[in-house]
């Protein structure tokens, strides 16, 4: 296969006629070697299709060849979907996307890769949303924070506000505790925020409950992807081996899921080399350990049939069909067993009918399918491990316990644990609920000037009374149009620029020392 690939890489990339003989020869060699998916070469073809000097037809040809080389994987179809979309073939692009989703659903390893991304996204999206919502509300309630008279704080209240903002500044800037600072900041905002905005903060805060679980599962999946067991499984699925990868992994299994994955991978490796007796030993070891998996029984029955062993073949196919009730593959293989062992055409037809009923796609397998074995010329389909084996394997990784404490120490404060994390989130959540209950129902924020006001009736216009007046106060006057435009005074410009660059500058000039310090510290 490597020699066949060299012909592809050396062929001129200017036309399809120059590439087609080399790619056809490669696919032929792949089928001769009984390799199901050559994902490494598919990735190389997709990379080749991104070269800038290639024509549209050549790019399509390389991408479709990548699909033919790895027919069970979704990533070549996804690349073809993107290519068609860039060429404005939208209907064909949607069709390719549907095929990619179907392949993605049927491939447990690709689903496992996606679950890793999914869990890590679930871990970080709530944190990002809480950060964004808090910062946006800080900007939204900037003026309300400046005009603290709305809260009617006493001298002790000013001291308390100063202490809280100082704590926020220390936690966000100096200490590695961004979430603690954001929680305190959200508490300050809830003192003068409207009910709607406080409810929004509370809902986002509630989503933080899933963060530790999602982060732990995501990191355990990353550990599993980097383990020797899963690397062996990946090479078993692709059929590609280097000399160093031909030997089974020497690392001992520490739990049942690792042992299953190790034995199943070794069985696949031996089967692809047509060492059926050795593959049979590995699968029988899994059954001896009282592990009930449909893929194991189906593949072991296939090996018995390839070696013309009649004992337990049909029984194992039936056992596989009971364990994999939604799969037609055991029935598809069972009809071959009825033909080979007893030439029972009636039972063979019934099994084939049931296979097509469960999996209509099995009806499209051609006679020269790549699953055809070279020795016996039987159309036998070997199954892969179910998704939950990969998940159980990931959850059993020994190093995952160290990641969550480090993560919590980073977002809360050093030494934090999951129990303390949940306690703080629960207290903060009930604190926001208390703020929602105490907030006046008629509290509104003017979208024009940022004032808080409390109307005594329902408003059609959401602006405050000052902004609705025909003549606005001087402090909030509009520049006007035409001759009414006035140039700002130099002192006003200096104060405005100073207030933007240094939050709290204006309050310091006007004598509100506590508010000025409280605004300056978090900035």
Number of helical segments with 4 or more residues: 27
Overall number of strands: 2
Shape-level CATH architecture of the largest domain: Alpha Horseshoe
Please name the CATH topology of the largest domain: Serine Threonine Protein Phosphatase 5, Tetratricopeptide repeat
| Structural class based on helices, strands and sheet pairing | mainly alpha
Shape summary: elongated
CATH 4th-level superfamily of the largest domain: Tetratricopeptide repeat domain
Question: Which CATH first-tier class of the largest domain would you pick?
Answer: Mainly Alpha
Distance between the termini: 62 Å
How many domains? The number is 4
| Residue fraction in strands | under 5%
Average pLDDT score: 75
Low-pLDDT runs of 5+ residues are: 236-251, 366-376, 470-485
Largest sheet: 2 strands, antiparallel
Give the C-alpha Rg.
33 Å
The amount of helix comes to 55-70%
Order of helices and strands: HHHHHHHHHHHHHHHHHHHHHHHEEHHHH
Biggest β-sheet: strands ordered side by side in the sheet? 1-2
Give a short summary of the structure:
The chain has 523 residues and is mostly helical. The chain folds into 4 domains: 2-106, Serine Threonine Protein Phosphatase 5, Tetratricopeptide repeat (Alpha Horseshoe), CATH 1.25.40; 121-212 and 406-439, no CATH class; 228-395, Alpha Horseshoe (Serine Threonine Protein Phosphatase 5, Tetratricopeptide repeat); 479-523, no CATH class. Helices cover 65% and strands 1% of the residues.
């Amino acid at each position: 296969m490597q020699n066949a690939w060299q012909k592809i890489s050396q062929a001129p990339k200017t036309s399809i006629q120059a590439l087609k003989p080399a790619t056809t020869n490669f696919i032929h060699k792949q089928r001769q070697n009984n390799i199901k998916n050559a994902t490494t070469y598919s990735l190389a073809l997709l990379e080749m299709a991104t070269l800038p000097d290639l024509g549209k037809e050549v790019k399509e040809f390389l991408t479709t060849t990548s699909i033919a080389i790895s027919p069970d994987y979704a990533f070549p179809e996804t690349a073809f979907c993107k290519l068609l979309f860039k060429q404005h073939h939208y209907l064909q692009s949607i069709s390719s996307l549907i095929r990619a989703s179907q392949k993605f659903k049927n491939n447990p390893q690709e689903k496992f890769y996606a679950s890793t991304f999914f869990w890590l996204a679930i871990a970080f999206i709530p944190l990002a949303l809480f950060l964004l919502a808090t910062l946006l509300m800080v900007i939204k309630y900037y003026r309300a924070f400046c005009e603290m008279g709305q809260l009617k704080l006493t001298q002790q209240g000013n001291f308390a506000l100063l202490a809280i903002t100082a704590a926020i500044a220390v936690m966000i800037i100096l200490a590695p505790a961004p979430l603690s600072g954001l929680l305190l900041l959200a508490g300050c905002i809830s003192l003068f925020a409207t009910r709607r905005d406080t409810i929004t903060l509370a809902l986002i805060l509630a989503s933080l409950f899933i963060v530790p679980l999602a982060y732990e599962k995501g990191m355990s999946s990353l550990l599993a992807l980097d383990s020797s067991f899963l690397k062996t499984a990946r090479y078993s699925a692709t059929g590609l081996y280097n000399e160093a990868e031909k030997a089974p992994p020497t690392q001992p299994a520490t739990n049942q899921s690792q042992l299953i994955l190790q034995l199943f991978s070794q069985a696949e490796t031996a089967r692809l080399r047509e060492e059926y007796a050795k593959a049979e030993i590995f699968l029988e070891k899994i059954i001896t350990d009282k592990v009930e998996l449909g893929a194991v029984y189906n593949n072991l029955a296939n090996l018995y049939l390839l070696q013309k062993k009649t004992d337990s073949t049909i029984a194992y196919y039936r056992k596989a069909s009971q364990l994999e009730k939604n799969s037609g593959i055991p029935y598809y293989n069972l009809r071959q067993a009825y033909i080979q062992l007893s030439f029972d055409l009636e039972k063979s037809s019934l099994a084939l009918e049931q296979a097509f009923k469960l999996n209509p796609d099995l009806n499209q397998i051609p006679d020269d399918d790549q699953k055809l074995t070279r020795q016996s010329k039987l159309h036998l389909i070997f199954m892969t491990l179910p998704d939950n084996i990969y998940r159980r394997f990931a959850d059993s990784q020994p190093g995952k316990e160290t990641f969550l404490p480090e993560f919590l120490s980073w977002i809360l404060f050093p030494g934090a644990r999951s129990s303390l994390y949940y306690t703080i989130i629960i207290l903060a959540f009930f604190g926001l609920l208390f703020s929602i209950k105490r907030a006046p129902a008629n509290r509104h924020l003017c979208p024009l000037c940022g004032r808080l006001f409390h109307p005594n009736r329902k408003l059609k216009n959401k602006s405050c009374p000052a902004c609705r007046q025909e003549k606005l106060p001087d402090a909030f006057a509009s520049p006007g149009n035409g001759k009414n435009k006035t140039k700002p005074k130099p002192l006003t410009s200096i104060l405005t620029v100073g207030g933007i660059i240094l939050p709290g500058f204006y309050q310091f000039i006007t004598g509100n020392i506590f508010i000025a310090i409280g605004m300056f510290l978090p900035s």
